[in-house]
Amino acid sequence: MIDLREKYSQFIKSEAKRLGFLSCGISKAGFLEEEAPRLENWLNRNLNGKMSYMENHFDKRLDPTLLVEDAKSVVSLLLNYYPEKEQNLDSYKISKYAYGQDYHFVIKEKLKELLFSIQENIGQVMGRVFVDSAPVMDKAWAAKSGLGWIGKNSNLLTQKVGSFYFIAELIIDLDLEYDSRTTDHCGSCTACIDACPTQAIVAPYIVDGSKCISYFTIELKENIPSEMKGHFDDWAFGCDTCQDVCPWNRFSKSHNEPLFNPNPELLSLSKKDWEEMTEETFRVVFKNSAVKRTKFSGLQRNINFLKK
């Protein structure tokens, strides 16, 4: 006779697939013992820069049972965002994850539907959905549930599809069948470390957040330090370098989520177009986009910094 936990787990994974998720893994909710000293050390070394929010909710960040009452399981999900087409070569670059609509809204809708489907088919299951906006260590949970391993660039990597995907969680008070970790397949490769334009990967598996181009172009609200001039490789919002050079991303396949398709105008913008962009054009091209996070003034600051 099939175990109920196994039955429920299979149902959740099949529903995740139906909703368009790339993959789904499940772990037992509890304190992340291995991550605790790593996170503490990373914060003590100030590798979070001005991202002070990383210091908040330390306990909750490591223990989902403090976020969701009576939490039993963490359901981790991956959603592909690898684009079919990329920006033209004579352009300031933005991270591929920001080509389409803001992923927070796209994924949250899918997660709510997944939770509703669980409640409708399994019964009274309580839980919360998380998309990169709460103190949840999404990469750690995804790795724990066997969806991939955390690579030397600190991204979650998989052998079949690389790393161009979002990670999200559903934390619920339902006992399920738990998946086991996969193995690390970075080997002796140092492609990401060697290619990082600002040497932000300070050691294998350790990224100095305060040196990352994504930090400077998105998180940092003040002026970008002048010593960084000439090191950004034309990245105006985020940076994909450590993913672009990763050998596992040779296996990336383009997504099939219409909401992640870019405004056609975005892909054809030249450097001159970016430099002359008005606030009105910004609003049209980046309507519902994650790029709005930096605001028009932030994007202008980044473009001015990149100009030769």
Automatic annotation (TrEMBL):
It comes from the Bacteria. PROSITE patterns: 4FE4S_FER_1, 4FE4S_FER_2. Cob(II)alamin binds at residues 61, 132, 153, 156, 167, 214, 239-240. Residues 177-206 form the 4Fe-4S ferredoxin-type domain. Binds 2 [4Fe-4S] clusters per monomer. GO terms for molecular function: epoxyqueuosine reductase activity. It is found in: Cytoplasm. [4Fe-4S] cluster 1 binds at residues 186, 189, 192, 246. Its EC number is 1.17.99.6. Keywords: 4Fe-4S, Cobalamin, Cobalt, Cytoplasm, Iron, Iron-sulfur, Metal-binding, Oxidoreductase, Queuosine biosynthesis, tRNA processing. Its cofactor is cob(II)alamin; [4Fe-4S] cluster. Pfam families: Fer4_16 (PF13484), QueG_DUF1730 (PF08331). Pathway: tRNA modification; tRNA-queuosine biosynthesis. The active site is at 132 (proton donor). It catalyses: epoxyqueuosine(34) in tRNA + AH2 = queuosine(34) in tRNA + A + H2O. Belongs to the QueG family. Monomer. Catalyzes the conversion of epoxyqueuosine (oQ) to queuosine (Q), which is a hypermodified base found in the wobble positions of tRNA(Asp), tRNA(Asn), tRNA(His) and tRNA(Tyr). This is Epoxyqueuosine reductase. It comes from Flavobacterium flavipallidum. The gene is queG.
